[in-house]
């Protein structure tokens, strides 16, 4: 049975997989090899972008042989994807890793690598957008609180969310809120304030 902790960890490397983290890449690879699951083996080329110490990999001799084959596959993938494979070359040379990789095996690993890489990139892009969005929202809220009273902010929010205003709110909007909003949107005023902000102030 595949470890739930292991599956969750692999999400960080693009596999559709927030549990406690493993302490090292070597431990993570050892856990994958322990599962004896070919689908999980396909995650290893993603992990090998970080330097590893082969001596710290804990696996049976058969699992270690499978791992060495994956190292050869990883080199081919990195070459094809134009990823630096210097450290992979060092492992191959240091441990005398040799062998031929069947085309269908390579294609399977390469396909899994590309899919995971795309998912990881999408996840990072979405995470970045969310972070930016949250920052911008916080800055906008701070700006609104500087300019408008809480009652005015509530009416602006209702308008933004397309909620219907009462007659009293509507009158208040046109009388007390809209003039301020129009002044803020005035380009001449904004240019004027930009110049003031850019000038060095001395006491």
What can be said about this structure in brief?
Helix 5 (61-80) packs antiparallel against helix 6 (86-94) and helix 5 packs across helix 7 (103-147). By secondary structure, the protein is mainly α.
How many E strands?
A: 0
> Which range does the strand content fall in?
under 5%
Percentage of residues in helical conformation: 55-70%
Largest sheet, described in full? none
Q: Give me the strand/helix succession.
A: HHHHHHHHHH
Gyration radius, rounded: 28 Å
Itemize the secondary structure elements and their pairings.
Layout: H1 4-10, H2 25-35, H3 38-41, H4 44-47, H5 61-80, H6 86-94, H7 103-147, H8 150-160, H9 167-185, H10 187-198
Helix pairs in contact: 5-6, 5-7
Describe this structure in words.
There is one protein chain. The chain has 203 residues and is an all-alpha fold. The chain has two domains: 4-118, no CATH class; 148-203, no CATH class. The chain is built from ten helices and no strands. The protein has helices at 4-10, 25-35, 38-41, 44-47, 61-80, 86-94, 103-147, 150-160, 167-185, 187-198. The longest helix is centred in the middle third of the chain and has 45 residues, at 103-147. The model has no long low-confidence stretch (mean pLDDT 85).
């Amino acid at each position: 049975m595949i470890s739930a902790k292991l599956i969750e960890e692999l999400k960080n490397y693009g596999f559709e997989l927030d549990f406690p983290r493993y302490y090292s890449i070597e431990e993570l690879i050892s856990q994958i090899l322990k599962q004896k699951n070919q689908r999980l083996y396909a995650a290893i080329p993603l992990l090998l972008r970080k330097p590893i110490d082969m001596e710290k990999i804990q696996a049976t001799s058969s699992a270690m042989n499978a791992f060495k084959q994956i190292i050869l596959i990883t080199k081919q993938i990195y070459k094809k994807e134009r990823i630096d494979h210097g450290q992979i070359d060092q492992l191959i040379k240091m441990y005398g890793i040799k062998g031929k990789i069947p085309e269908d095996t390579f294609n399977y690993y390469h396909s899994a690598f590309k899919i995971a890489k795309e998912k990881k990139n999408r996840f990072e892009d979405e995470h970045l957008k969310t972070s930016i969005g949250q920052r911008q929202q916080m800055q906008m809220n701070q700006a609104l609180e500087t300019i408008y009273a809480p009652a005015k902010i509530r009416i602006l929010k209702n308008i933004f969310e397309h909620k219907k205003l009462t007659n009293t709110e509507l009158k208040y909007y046109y009388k007390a809120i809209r003039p301020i909003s129009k002044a803020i949107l005035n380009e001449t005023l904004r240019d004027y304030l930009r110049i003031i902000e850019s000038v060095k102030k001395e006491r």
